[in-house]
């Protein structure tokens, strides 16, 4: 059932693309959903809430990013983050089993996703500001962090003022995370003797930075166009209402004269 003009699906934990959903395609998600359903049921029996799983999953991502990445341990940091990614699937599974899909669940997931994103790119920035010793890549990492937040904000703000923001963009959250985390994990293999592979992370960060900038511009342009179209439609509606009111007055006046 829809509420306030929104479909019910938009009010649940599956409303926004979480980190787990970003890293798993639909076939892998279906498989892991089946595998994780008994675990989700076990947590429910133990009295664990979906919100608790969401919070613990985010805490794990933050720990993986801010403990390992600033030390240059990209492989193990990515492994830890990937393990906690599955909390995105578990909490949604639990919510469905409990029948508790809600606006609050969607809001909490979306908010904590922004925190997790900040931790990941913040971890990269700390590495390059410290032992990585590369101010340019530190700046690129910070730009990836900030632009990712702003890209998400533009869509949310546009929708909050009644615009559809009907554009996907070149590099959205799923692409930012998959590109960055895969590159980080592979770059970490340099510590195990794989030569030259560490260049993948800098390349990925530049790709994400440029793609995020393009996406931001796409969304701003879209909001500008949709805003102008909405204002034109509103002006046309107002003119139509005024014209109908004038016609009604004229009709009334003619009726009065005929009655005389």
Automatic annotation (TrEMBL):
Primary residence: membrane
Catalytic activity, as annotated: 1,2-di-(9Z-octadecenoyl)-sn-glycero-3-cytidine-5'-diphosphate + 1D-myo-inositol 3-phosphate = 1,2-di-(9Z-octadecenoyl)-sn-glycero-3-phospho-(1D-myo-inositol-3-phosphate) + CMP + H(+); a CDP-1,2-diacyl-sn-glycerol + 1D-myo-inositol 3-phosphate = a 1,2-diacyl-sn-glycero-3-phospho-(1D-myo-inositol-3-phosphate) + CMP + H(+)
Cofactor(s) essential for the protein: Mg(2+)
Any GO molecular function: CDP-diacylglycerol-glycerol-3-phosphate 3-phosphatidyltransferase activity
InterPro entries: CDP-OH_P_trans, CDP-OH_PTrfase_TM_dom, CDP_ALCOHOL_P_TRANSF_CS, PIP_synthase_PgsA1
Entry keyword S-adenosyl-L-methionine: no
Binding site for a CDP-1,2-diacyl-sn-glycerol: 51-54, 92, 96, 102
EC number(s) recorded for this UniProt protein: 2.7.8.-
Keyword Cytoplasm attributed: no
Signal sequence coordinates: none
Family statement: Belongs to the CDP-alcohol phosphatidyltransferase class-I family.
Protein name: Phosphatidylinositol phosphate synthase
Organism: Streptomyces achromogenes
């Amino acid at each position: 059932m829809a509420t306030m003009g929104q479909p019910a699906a938009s009010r649940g934990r599956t409303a926004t693309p979480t980190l787990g959903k970003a890293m798993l395609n639909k076939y892998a998600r279906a498989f892991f959903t089946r595998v994780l359903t008994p675990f989700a049921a076990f947590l429910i029996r133990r009295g664990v809430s979906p919100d608790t799983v969401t919070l613990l999953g985010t805490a794990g991502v933050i720990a993986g990013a801010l403990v390992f990445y600033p030390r240059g341990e990209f492989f193990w940091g990515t492994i830890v983050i990937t393990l906690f990614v599955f909390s995105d699937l578990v909490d949604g599974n639990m919510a469905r089993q409990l029948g508790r899909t809600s606006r609050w669940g969607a809001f909490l997931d979306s908010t904590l996703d922004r925190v997790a994103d900040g931790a990941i790119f913040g971890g990269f920035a700390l590495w390059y500001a410290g032992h990585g010793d590369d101010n340019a890549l530190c700046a690129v990492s910070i730009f990836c962090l900030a632009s990712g937040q702003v890209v998400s904000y533009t869509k949310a703000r546009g929708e909050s003022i009644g615009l559809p923001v009907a554009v996907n963009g070149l590099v959205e959250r799923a692409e930012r995370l998959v590109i960055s985390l895969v590159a980080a994990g592979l770059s970490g293999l340099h510590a195990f003797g794989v030569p030259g592979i560490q260049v993948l992370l800098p390349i990925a960060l530049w790709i994400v930075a440029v793609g995020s900038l393009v996406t931001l511009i796409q969304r701003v342009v879209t909001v500008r166009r949709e805003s102008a179209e909405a204002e034109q439609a509103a002006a046309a509606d107002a003119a139509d209402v005024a014209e109908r009111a004038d016609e009604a007055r004229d009709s009334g006046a003619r009726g009065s004269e005929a009655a005389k």
